[in-house]
Automatic annotation (TrEMBL):
Ranges where the record places region Disordered: 1-20, 55-82, 94-131, 518-546
Pfam families on file: NRDE-2
Organism domain of life: Eukaryota
Annotated protein name in UniProt: At3g17740
Subcellular locations according to the entry: Nucleus
Composition bias type Basic and acidic residues, residue spans: 117-131
Organism: Arabidopsis thaliana
């Protein structure tokens, strides 16, 4: 609707209905008079420059807020469009209010002067910006898709900086005037009860384009916001007669009134939401006081309330309320570990370190058998920089292991000692006990005590795996083990080791042989010669010191000579230091004034860490610390691990699952390749990932594949995350470790025979050992001799044949691999049934090797025909014969029918929660057979159907089902060119919900989504996963994606900061080390790396590698005094330092 008010001269100015804010000239009216009715609108003939000029002189929202009584003054200033508005007449005020009219007039004059200056500046800005806009080519424009931002920029915006920011995007219909448009937007935002002037004094502008009063309004708790929700769908009348299985829950009248009142509310402020939520939580916790999740949700809501508070005192009050809620919840549910952990974490935000530790100790005294409480308590103690000491943490670990071990022993005493197998609860207790020991070894290794970590693992493997079968008490077993540990016998992993049990047997044989020889000597001499005692290594010193009268004088003289000899090197050392200009008595900070000396110290320290990781012994001479000579070197003393150092951490294991877990984690601890033996959701896997210092081989392989995938499209400015930290150890250290592991695994195979995971690990360790030892290439596989030796000792071990053939195929020797596979499959018919059940694994490995060897993607290649022949044999159940020609249609039909029958049996067993490697291999073989013979949808249908037959809780904990899902994703990747994005994306998203710590799924996610969606969308997906299931794996792949794509430095720093701001990742050493390496190597910002370094050592004071990064990478920003102080703090925290700075000074001199 158009308004046509008369101006002062009596002329009428007609305003168009579409853009009423812009005036229309008389010429334009005459030009339109002959045009059709639908073209007579002024917007079609208005010059665009006039629109730009009018828009540039349009009032801002601050001018509109001055009041309605300024219309005439605004028109006098040139705003003709505003003058065309209908006048608004206010009511006559009372006499009391007329007394301040003079003040109002003065205020209006000041605002008018300010508005004139603003309009002049707006016109100048409009003239400058018009230079960037091209002149319109057409005479008119149709605004089919209106953009409100055009008003902010003055025209179709092409520049980056608007003149102002609109307050709201909602436009009131029917209001053509820009001023009325802005006024209505203002009135729709602000509540009439809010005092704007009171907020204006204390408001501060947060950004450039927001007014201060509206920013304060957004922060106001009384500001009511409208929350839109979808309307409830109409219920179909056909469901009137539907009878539900559950009875309808009757809603009380009070609740109905609350619902109606909520629906009738136009908007709700933040305080209203807090009151409503609090009322709801109170009702839920009152009705269900034993619902721990409801109490935890109530406590988490207090964190949300606290985040909205600006005052520190109010936040502390909210924290106290949260603590009181959790205390009440734990009082009603004293057996809930989740509530106790949440309460202790809340105490951490309020109490100091001493009070917090006392609360933890009190909680652990009442719940000593809880692995989660011990694990969290140890993380708290390790993260407290002011209290951290290596010896203190080691003592707490001994308490934890003893408490968990006593809980296991108590449970074993409650059940029958001969009952086999053990119940699941007892097995789980032993598994977490093994995890606690491995966590201790990892802590010792990272603190620099590699010899102690190695000795702890050696001792536990000997004590639990190779223990004698005698029915001994725990104390008797420990005394017997002390004799073994203090002897000359080789331990597991060392050359000539054959286990504690065989060592005892040989010791007993030697003792009987000595007794026989002594008795024969007595019979030859004849007669009684008196009582004699057997001379042993233990009482040799006592016997040698029997003749004290003869030795005292000589010993005094010998001691005096030794003192004279020891004093001479000290004098020589002091003289040498004085010649170098070093005073021994000065402070440590004044000794070294050159940072290059500390860099050399760092290199020597790293070299010694790599070479000194095996415990040393003096031929069993010393059984205690007192036995060491006074002149022994301190470094050699620290590398000797005595029985007193390990006896507090030993425990017995009864279940086979726990003993296998110990062996598997022993292999994985030293960096050997080992197939997945546990789910990624297990405690051992999550603990391993969270405590990474360097990239493991499996993680490094996944990150490299991501980098290779991304670098194909973006080759410029891309970096690899795996290359930031370099290798985990040098070549010599890795070679010695592989030799150590080969010896240990071969010994363990005597206890766990025909274990294909151990057999594969020992062959890979042999390959790495031989390859690193020999610089020249060898004609045969490095592990061929070892594999033949193992097969010679056990010719019925089919899985060993399959593992060896896989290694041959991976090295490219496919002909030899086929001979080994064929030999194993042809000899399987004459073996017992318990060995024939391994046929699916053997056939799957053979078929996968053929598919990998296939040069083309079609089915007509020879390798595909060979794979189809193998799978036809598995499905039909006939006797195997080597490949001669392609399989016939009858053989394929018989194999398909056989697979269907076998899958039905597997489905019934899986529904009861029983899964194993053989059944999972059979399902994968059936899917591969369907892929080769029919098509991909049939293969995917088999995998989806079998996977859906298992309950979700069992899916997440079964590593066989996780391997099956990984196989499913790899099949999708092979055919991703033939599938849509939704077909690829849906299974990966479901898999990440089940296995959020699986690195292979994140690698597949990047591989599939890289070329099918924008980078922004993939970044949003990573952000979503990091919020839902935050873990080190998610952040590492998100960072790898950004570095490989050459992402923005702000984005990369934001990822690091968000990851390290969380409590679960703040103690991640690998994230801190990657952050420091990024700032040094890529961003080239040493000052930022210095700040991050100090934050890192404060969060992770136990990591020696992290401390040494300051000496190796920050030499340009750290002074010599700071490096000296860092070394002193390392000694104060009891980290193992192997090199003295005096040694470096002597080498330089």
């Amino acid at each position: 609707m158009s308004n046509t008010p008369e101006d002062g001269d009596g002329a009428q100015v007609t305003t168009g209905g579409l853009f009423p804010v812009f005036p229309t000239s008389a010429n334009s009216i005459s030009a339109i008079s002959n045009a059709p009715q639908w073209l007579r609108n002024a917007s079609f003939t208005t010059d665009l420059s006039v629109i730009n000029a009018a828009a540039s002189t349009a009032p801002s929202s601050s001018e509109v807020e001055a009041g309605d009584d300024e219309d005439e003054e605004g028109g006098a200033d040139g705003n003709i469009g505003l003058a065309n508005q209908a006048r608004v007449y206010n009511l006559v005020e009372e006499e009391g209010s007329l007394e301040s009219d003079d003040d109002k007039v003065k205020r209006k004059r000041e605002k008018k002067k300010k508005r004139k200056s603003d309009n002049a500046s707006d016109e100048s800005r409009s003239r400058k910006s018009d230079e960037y806009y091209s002149k319109p080519v057409k005479d008119y424009y149709l605004d089919t898709r209106p953009d409100p931002d055009n008003l902010a920029y003055g025209s179709i915006y092409r520049m980056n900086v608007p003149r102002y920011k609109l307050d709201n995007s909602q436009r009131v219909p029917g209001s053509g005037s820009l001023r009325f448009y802005l006024r209505n937007r203002r009135s729709s935002m602000l509540d009439t009860e809010i005092d704007i002037d009171s907020l204006e004094g204390r408001a501060k502008s947060d950004t450039r384009y927001w007014y201060a009063k509206h920013a304060a309004m957004e922060r106001n708790k009384n500001f009511k916001r409208i929350r839109l929700s979808a309307a409830s769908e109409a219920v179909d009348s056909s469901f009137d007669n539907f009878i539900p299985l559950e009875e309808d829950v009757t809603v009380p009248e009070s609740d109905e009134e609350d619902v109606l009142s909520k629906d009738s509310m136009i908007g709700a402020s933040w305080e209203d939401e807090v009151l409503n939520k609090t009322r709801e939580f109170n009702r839920v916790t009152r009705e269900r006081p034993h619902d721990a999740k409801a109490w935890l949700a109530f406590a988490d809501f207090q964190d949300k309330v606290s985040s909205m508070q600006s005052q520190k005192g109010v936040r502390l009050q909210t924290l106290e309320k949260k603590i009181s809620i959790l205390e009440k919840a734990f009082e009603l549910n004293p057996d809930s570990e989740e509530l106790l952990l949440a309460l202790l974490k809340a105490y951490r935000s309020r109490d100091n370190a001493d009070v917090l530790i006392s609360r933890w100790e009190k909680a652990l005294m009442q719940n000593s058998a809880s692995y989660k409480l011990w694990r969290e308590f140890l993380c708290v103690v390790q993260g407290e920089f002011s209290r951290f000491k290596v010896s203190e943490v080691r003592r707490l670990y001994s308490y934890a292991i003893q408490a968990l071990s006593s809980a296991c022993s108590k449970r074993h005493r409650q059940v029958d000692t001969t009952s086999e197998p053990l119940d699941s609860a007892a097995i789980q207790q032993e598994l977490v006990l093994v995890d606690m020991l491995v966590s201790l070894c990892r802590f010792e290794w990272q603190a620099g005590y590699q010899e102690l970590a190695t000795a702890l693992l050696q001792a536990e493997v000997e004590f639990s795996i190779f223990s004698p079968s005698l029915l001994l008490t725990e104390q008797s077993k420990l005394r017997l083990f002390e004799h073994f540990w203090s002897s000359n016998g080789a331990r597991v992993g060392e050359e000539g080791a054959f286990g504690w049990l065989l060592w005892l047997e040989k010791e007993e044989e030697n003792r009987q042989k000595i007794l026989k020889e002594e008795s024969s000597d007595d019979n030859e001499v004849g007669g009684w010669t008196g009582w004699t005692e057997q001379v042993s290594g233990r009482n040799g010193d006592d016997i040698a010191s029997a003749n004290t009268g003869e030795v005292d004088v000589d010993r005094k003289g010998l001691d005096e000579e030794m003192e004279d000899e020891n004093s001479k090197p000290e004098d020589d050392t002091e003289a040498m230091l004085k010649l170098l200009g070093i005073d021994v008595n000065t402070a440590a900070s004044d000794e070294v004034k050159d940072t290059s000396t500390w860099v050399k110290w760092f290199e020597e320290e790293v070299s010694r860490d790599h070479s000194q990781w095996m415990p040393t012994r003096k031929a069993g001479e010393f059984s205690s610390v007192e036995g060491m000579g006074e002149g022994e070197d301190e470094e050699q003393l620290s590398s000797v691990v005595l029985y007193e150092d390990i006896n507090g951490y030993l425990f017995s294991l009864r279940s086979k699952e726990a003993r296998l877990s110990l062996v598997y984690q022993f292999i994985d601890f030293f960096g050997a390749h080992i197939s997945p033996w546990t789910s990624s959701n297990s405690l051992s896997w999550s603990e391993k990932i969270s405590s990474l210092e360097t990239f493991s081989d499996s993680m490094l392989e996944n990150l490299r594949s991501v980098h290779e995938c991304l670098s194909k499209s973006d080759s410029a400015n891309c970096f690899s995350l795996g290359s930031l930290l370099g290798g985990s150890c040098d070549l010599s250290m890795r070679t010695e470790m592989m030799k150590f592991l080969r010896n240990a695994i071969l010994l363990c195979l005597n206890v766990f025979p025909r274990n294909y995971i151990l057999e594969e690990a020992v062959l890979v360790a042999e390959e790495l050992f031989v390859t690193n030892m020999k610089t020249c290439e060898v004609a045969t596989m490095p592990c061929q001799a070892l594999a033949k030796r193992l097969l010679k000792s056990d010719r019925q071990d089919l899985l060993l044949c399959g593992v060896y053939a896989q290694r041959e195929a991976a090295s490219g020797n496919m002909k030899h691999a086929r001979r080994v596979f064929d030999m194993a499959l042809t000899s399987i018919c004459g073996l017992p049934k318990e060995l024939q059940c391994n046929t699916p694994l053997l056939c799957l490995w053979y078929a996968e090797s053929e598919v990998a060897n296939s040069s083309g993607s079609g089915r007509d290649t020879e390798s595909s025909s060979r794979a189809m022949h193998i799978l036809c044999y598995l499905g039909s159940g006939l006797a195997y014969s080597p490949y001669t020609s392609q399989s016939s249609s009858m053989q394929i039909l018989r194999a398909r029918q056989g697979f269907r029958e076998k899958l039905k049996k597997i489905q019934s067993t899986w529904s009861h929660g029983v899964t194993d490697d053989q059944s999972a291999a059979l399902v994968c073989s059936a899917a591969l057979f369907e892929e080769l013979t029919n098509d991909l949808p049939g293969a995917l249908e088999i995998l989806e159907h079998m996977f859906s037959s298992v309950l979700p809780g069992r899916k997440s904990q079964s590593h066989q089902l996780e391997l099956l899902f990984n196989y499913y994703v790899r099949m999708l990747q092979r055919h991703q060119d033939d599938l849509t994005l939704s077909q690829l994306w849906k299974p990966i998203s479901e898999g990440l919900q089940l296995y959020p710590l699986n690195p292979e799924l994140y690698r597949a996610l990047v591989d599939i989504c890289n070329h099918r969606m924008t980078s922004h969308k993939l970044r949003m997906m990573f952000d979503d996963y990091s919020r839902k299931n935050s873990s080190v794996v998610v952040w590492l792949f998100a960072l790898s994606y950004e570095l490989s794509k050459g992402g923005s430095s702000h984005r990369i720093r934001g990822l690091f900061e968000r990851a390290l701001a969380q409590d679960t990742q703040n103690n991640s050493v690998i994230l801190w080390r990657c952050y420091i390496a990024y700032e040094i190597d890529i961003a080239d910002n040493p000052s930022a790396a210095r700040r991050i370094y100090f934050r890192a050592i404060n969060a992770c004071p136990w990591s020696k590698k992290l401390w040494l990064d300051g000496f190796g990478k920050l030499g340009s920003v750290l002074t010599a005094k700071e490096m000296s102080d860092l070394q002193e703090v390392m000694r104060d925290k009891e980290l193992n330092i192997r090199t003295d700075i005096y040694e470096i000074l002597l080498m330089q001199g």
